[in-house]
Amino acid sequence: MKRILTTPRPDWREQAQSLGFHFHTIDGEAYWDESAYYAFGLRQIEDDIEQPTQELHDMSMALVDEVVGSEELLTRLAIPTDYWDWIAASWRRREPHLYGRMDLAYDGRGPAKLYELNYDTPTSLYEAAYFQWLWLEQAIARGTFGEGSDQYNRIQELLIETFATLSREKRIATPVHFAAVEDSVEDRGTVRYLRDCAEQAGVDTLELSIEGIGLSKEGWFTDGDDRVIKTLFKLYPLEWMFVEEYGPKLAASQVQLIEPAWKAILSNKGVLPLLWERHRDHPNLLEAQFEDAAAQTAELPAGWVRKPLFSREGANIELVSASGERLRSDGPYQDGPTIRQAHHPLPRFDGDDGAANYPLIGSWVVADQAAGMGIREDASPITQDTSRFVPHAIIED
Amino acid sequence: MTVHDRNSKRSRQLRLVLMAVSVPAVLTGCGDDQPSGKVLTSREDCAAQTEIAPAECEKAYQQALVEHEKLAPRFESEKECNDQFGACQPAPVAANASAGSHSYMPSMSGFLIGYALSQAMQPRGYYGIGGVSPLYRDYRSGGYLRPGGELVGKSSGTVYGKQGNTALPARAMTVSRAGFGSSAAARGGFGGSRSSGSSRGGSWGG
Prior knowledge:
The complex is a heterodimer of chains A (about 400) and B (about 210). Chain A is an alpha+beta fold and about 400 residues long. Chain A has helices at about 10-20, 40-70, 70-75, 85-90, 125-140, 155-170, 185-200, 240-245, 265, 270-280, 295; strands spanning about 1-5, 25, 30, 35-40, 100-105, 115-120, 175-180, 205-210, 215, 220, 230-235, 255-260, 290, 305-310, 320, 325-330, 340, 360-365, 370-380, 390, 390-395. Chain A contains 11 helices and 21 strands. With about 210 residues, chain B is of the alpha+beta class.
């Protein structure tokens, strides 16, 4: 694994604009960054990323099966009681799921370590699945990369295949409505991309905003044209839906959600201690524990990270490195239950200018298959809102 | 395009159809050959069939009765109602109806159980229930109709393809909106910023 500087394509911005990648630059900050790429060997990809991703995914799915049948575990995960039956029923029916991303710390040598699962509303999908692929194809065509160069990336292909299978087996009702938060350019781009994949699979789709979802007197969800929403892909956290006005209407609405209700279990950081309890010392897991009230108010010891069960965007996280350096982020998720995870720092790859870069691997799972990866890089050891997406390639020495 | 060997870790060919240049979507027809539901004429039919778990079937019957009260066709004249369906009765008067307005509705003469789309993992080989609809026998045609007038079939028993699609009607009158989205609004940080509902940047060294 190496970080290699490379010359950006002169027209990449124009290409991005014409291909619907409207968030390549966000608030004036570059997000897509092709001034460098990460090079891997095939063994690193297959043995250290792909295979562990598959194994961690399978362990997580086995965990869902255990949690839905256990009031004790549902309680530990702080899932609201009112939704237990609905979540369990969605699992019993094996309501289809589409995708998830797990974040891994990997330095090219030791086993990759699981930071967390993003299994309900993962983003950075389009840039990993499509724009990154295009970058390599064009580099090979231009001759800047050898014919033998490759990339770990079958994400889009598997997304289309999954939509086609769900449609053929009639496991989704069409048209499928796709919804994202009105004001998020990035979320709307992600949803438009997923619609694109569904349309390529022959699935009829519609788009609306999360705020635009309506309710009929019969209790069905509707779109702006009074069409009843049968299947809803929502890029919006399940746990937020639970506590909002329409939450209590979900069960009777007959809507089929993607990601389905049972994903509430895997979008919850409480799975990290549960996985550790069941697979102690697994090479790809970091030690993790639930914090009780006493632990929560205690000083966090060196070498630990505190994460809320339901935080997103790296908010409300506290970290104490092994050397005692303290870091903490603000956010809207205080007062909830928390977990502790052993601190495992991200690797550091210095640029030619001496600037530090810390890459985080986002490893994608589509339906139930390890599918590909994308790398986000930050100038600080903590991947935050200022992170950039940097492409990768498989280069055999 | 370059030719990749079959062991490539990446896809050979990718394209975009919506994000780049608009291309009309190819719509797939739905197969009309698969069992998609069952028409039953009475609650007693539940015990005499093997596709649906009997207890679920009973529940579906009760649900159909509730839907019947809400959705049965309404006629201004009793005669008009009886000509088509027979056994018509005055409809319950809605609370907000103007005085003296009467309407008539037929009795429920059957009910449709639509099979669930996803048939995985049903216990003991029963179909899961996707939805329920009351049915009305049209004396002129002999067919079983849904409240909206759609013909489901001429006789009771298994129906195929679209006929069993009870899932949901295509349209319904919206009575409220914006019951989702308040959490995003309250937290801010969504509007076009680097953050999103996912944990983009949500992965601290841990």
